[in-house]
Amino acid sequence: MKRKLFITGVIFAVLFVFLCLPLSRYPISLAVMKIYSGLHERDSLMEKKGISLEIPGGGTTEEKDWYPFVMTFNDSAGFRQFIREKDGELPYEMENPLELTILYNFPAFDILKGCSDLYNPQSPYYNSFYGAYLVSGRTAEGGPYGFSADGSLDLEATSQVPQFDFQRLVLTHLGIRSRQQIFDWKMQSVRKNVDYGGSSGWTRVDASLITNGVIHRPEGFQRSYLQYGSCAYVPKDYGMDSFAPVSMRGRLYGKYFADWDTSIFFYIMAADEDVLESCDAKILSKSVLK
């Protein structure tokens, strides 16, 4: 009996020590995000509309670049509230309100540091994300979200989803207050009738972006640490302030699908141009939508 208690005690002690080490944060992230993403998939627009959308993760490349798999998150109510605050009203029919599903991925983990290179200001993947936004809902005029009456992409609406995503779902959940947040999105070029994701008729938008970087001095626990790991990079070590602004590039591919009554936007946000181009060519463009 004493031997069993001793062995049990040793096992729990070893487990406790492991959980306190940076090495534990990666397997914890994988386990938590696999379950959490799976729960959101069940209530996603893909499930409701019968959309099959597969976006490759970092596990499909030889480089140590991105997290192994793409995750799913829904926040329709939050997005509707964001538009109310931004525009002063909600110009969408309440009987067919906006719904939003986000597919996203972030930079790979540095296992020894116990966190994603999302935090590493010396990594070309610093502050970077890619994935897709799916939005359903009709305007007051009866048109789909993100598109004008003539079917062209609404450039103002195009920037609203990444702004909501980065400000409300990334920065806020890392502890930065709304009044400190920056998101300056400026269109650089627009290309129409682009082939992408196995179909034609996409509009590609390239933009410059200045927003907050995610390196920061932690002040208490944030739920986002479960997915990205704890922040192992100290701003002052790099001569930076917490959440210091960073210049980035953004790229979006947008198209409305009448069969699903859903607007779909593929996106990449990266501080490094080579990362953006590589992600587009090797990963995001290989997505399968059907």
Describe this structure in a few short sentences.
The chain is built from seven helices and eleven strands. With 290 residues, it is of the alpha+beta class.
Count of helical stretches: 7
Question: What string gives the helices and strands in order?
Answer: HHHEEHEEEEHEEHEEHE
Lateral arrangement of strands in the main beta sheet: 2-3-6-10-9-8-7
Outline, from the CA principal axes? globular
Number of strands: 11
- Pick out the low-confidence regions: 2-21
Helix content: 25-40%
How far is the first residue's CA from the last residue's CA?
Answer: 59 Å
Portion of residues in beta strands equals 25-35%
What integer value in Å does the Rg equal?
20 Å
Largest beta-sheet details: 7 strands, antiparallel
Give the mean pLDDT: 87
How does the helix and strand content classify structurally?
alpha+beta
Could you please describe the fold and organization of this structure?
- This protein is α+β, with helices and mostly antiparallel strands.
- Helices cover 29% and strands 27% of the residues.
- It is built from 7 helices and 11 strands.
- The strands form 3 sheets. Strands 2-3-6-10-9-8-7 form a 7-stranded antiparallel sheet, with helices on both faces. Strands 1-11 form a two-stranded antiparallel sheet. A two-stranded antiparallel sheet has the order 4-5.
- A hairpin with a 4-residue loop joins β4 and β5.
- α4 crosses α5.
- The longest helix has 19 residues.
- The radius of gyration is 20 Å and the shape is globular.
- The relative contact order is 0.16.
- The N terminus is likely disordered.
